[in-house]
Every structure is written in C-alpha cells, then in structure tokens.
Amino acid sequence: MDASKKRIVALGVAVGVGVCMATPASAKAVTLKLAHQWPQAESDYVIATAIKFAQEVEKRSNGDIKIQFFPAESLVKASNTHTALKNGAVDLAIYPYIYAAGAIPEMNLLLMPGVWKSHDDVFNFRTTAPWQKIEAKAEAYGFKTLSWIQISGGVASTKKPIVSSADVAGEKVRAAGKYMSYALQQAKASTVSMPSSENYSAMQMGLLDAVWTSSSSFGAYRLYEVSKFYVSPEEYSIYYTIDPIAISMKTWNKLTPDQQQILSEVGKSLEQSALEGAKNEDSRVAKLFASNGVAVQQMTLEDWNQWHALFEKYAFTKFKEDNPSDAALLDEILALYK
C-alpha cells in the first residue's frame, strides 16, 4: 500500500466516530450522526423538525452535509447524551436538556415549574440574557444549541382532577423533575419516580394516582386509556421541557465556517414551526383524552398563580439552597415574567 492510500485509511479510522469525512476529492463533505431517544416517527413534531433540519441542511450544502439518524437510543442512552456530545461520540442530538443537569446545574432551570405561563413565554426566553448565560455553560461543557424545541405538559389523574396543590395531598404522583417533586412533597403528595414508559401500567395498577408528563408522552404512551381526568396545558402550564437540536463542540470546531453557518441558519429557521408544532400537539392530545371519555379541562390563570405560589415557596427556594451561585440567575429569569 503506498503512502497516500495509507493516509486515507488512517483518516477513515480516526473519524469513525463523530464527523465522518469523505474522500480527499470532496474534503468538505461530512456525514453527521444524530441521536435521539424516540421512535423515528414524523407524526411527532419534534422528530419532524429534525427531519426537516436534515433535509434542508443537505439541500443548502449541495449534499456536502448529510445527517444520519440513530433513533430510540440506538447510539447512546438518553441520560448519557450530554456526555456523548462532550466526547464527540455523537455529532448531533435532540434531547431534554434537563438530562445534563448533573453536569450543568443551570439546566435545572429549564425544567423549573411555575416559571413560564405559556408557550410564548418559553419561546421568548431563548433570546434573553439568562438563556445566553446557560448556553455559554453548555458550550463550555461541550455542546451548543442549533434549534430551540420546546414541549409542554399537563397532568392526568384517576381519582379527581388535579387543579390546585390542595388536590395532591395524599395522592401518589409522578412529577416532572426533582424541584417539582420536592414542592409536591411539601403539599403532602407522595411522589414516585419512573420513566415515561412505565406510567401506563402504574396508573392501571393504582400505583400512581396522577402523572405530569409532556403532551407528546401522553399521546405516545396512550395514558388517555387509563385516566379519568386531564388538565390540559393548551392555555397555561406549570411545566415545560426544552429539547433542542444540539451539536458537539468537537464536531462544530471541525466544520468550516460555511458549514457552521448553514447549520445555524437552518436551525433558527425551523424554530417558529416547532413552536406551532408544540401548540398543535397540546390540542391534539387534549382531543385524544376527550375522545376516550376522559374529563378534560384547561388550566386557568388563577390556577397557574396558585401553583406558582407553591413553587415560589418551595421549588425556587430549594434550588437556591442547592445552587447558591445560581440564585441570582433564577431571580433574573423570574424578573422577566413578573
């Protein structure tokens, strides 16, 4: 084997994981690996957004940037996504940023209950100074955001509608995140931690009386079949999760400025349609509950304010105790929505 062929083989081995370079004749061409935890279903607006992202990136790069999907945790476990991005084991990912909270405590703020009232509040947050500070932490850790995707959540229950904090006393509930769990415990609820895939059987068997989860999960796991009441997040919600398209900084730094610009511009261009997808998903899931005989109601502003008072007293305080260096950041965020 001559020296040039040896060099090509060595290059292929070196980038076997991460950015996969093409032959020297097309040295700018890359194939990026995108991992996520869900089925590869275009009916899910999150996945549909990622598919549009991949298609548009390939089109605008004239085929020099291709994106290969690895759905359903086939490349990396969801909880390890941030580590895989940091190490360059995956190039791109869609995943809930809360999974990175162990490494980046500020990510807890993205699942903090009672901060945002509506989808528009959450969407506008992506342009604020507090978000830029959190994003800077993510980039320093090892990944950056290309496209903002958000998901809202409601609460389904079997005994009574969960409208206020008084309704959770004595109930077995599955909360969204540790700070919601802590606040609900102070309201005399018994909190249970389990993955979304186990909620159906737990409610069916009476191990759970109520579940907070995302609209998408309510639909995907058919929780309307084992629920009697549903408080929909269509107007107001105490719970949102941020699930962006992220890129490894190791991958980002290997790309040309033109490739970086294409990825950034395409990601930004899809954010508005992802927001509309999130709102439509809330409505679609509420109709699924109603069509299966579940009593559906909307959260009102009065309800939201009552929940906010609970979280302000317990969840916000607990976060500040756990993360004193980030107390001012939480206050900065809250000041935006007073």
- Please give the number of β-strands: 13
How much of the residues is beta strand, in percent?
15-25%
Poorly predicted tracts of residues = 1-27
The largest sheet, given as strand count, sense and whether it forms a barrel, is: 7 strands, mixed
As a whole number of angstroms, the C-alpha radius of gyration is 21 Å
Question: How far apart are the first and last residues' alpha carbons, in Å?
Answer: 69 Å
- SSE arrangement, N to C: HEEHEHEHHEEEHEHEHEEEHHHEHHH
The number of helical runs is 14
Question: What do these coordinates show?
Answer:
With 338 residues, the protein is of the alpha/beta class. Helix content is 43%, strand content 16%. It is built from 14 helices and 13 strands. The protein has helices at residues 3-14, 45-60, 81-87, 119-125, 129-141, 178-186, 199-204, 215-220, 249-254, 257-269, 271-291, 301-313, 315-322, 327-335, and strands at 20-21, 30-35, 65-70, 92-94, 143-147, 150-157, 172-174, 190-191, 210-214, 229-232, 240-242, 245-248, 295-298. Strands 6, 7, 8, 9, 10, 11 and 13 form a seven-stranded mixed β-sheet that branches. Strand 1 and strand 2 form a beta hairpin. Helix 2 packs antiparallel against helix 10 and helix 6 (178-186) crosses helix 13 (315-322). The model is unreliable at 1-27 (pLDDT under 50).
Helices and strands in order:
Blueprint (H helix, E strand, L loop, with lengths): L2 H12 L5 E2 L8 E6 L9 H16 L4 E6 L10 H7 L4 E3 L24 H7 L3 H13 L1 E5 L2 E8 L14 E3 L3 H9 L3 E2 L7 H6 L5 E5 H6 L8 E4 L7 E3 L2 E4 H6 L2 H13 L1 H21 L3 E4 L2 H13 L1 H8 L4 H9 L3
Parallel strand pairs: 2-3, 2-4, 7-8, 7-9, 10-13
Antiparallel strand pairs: 1-2, 4-12, 5-12, 6-9, 6-10, 6-11
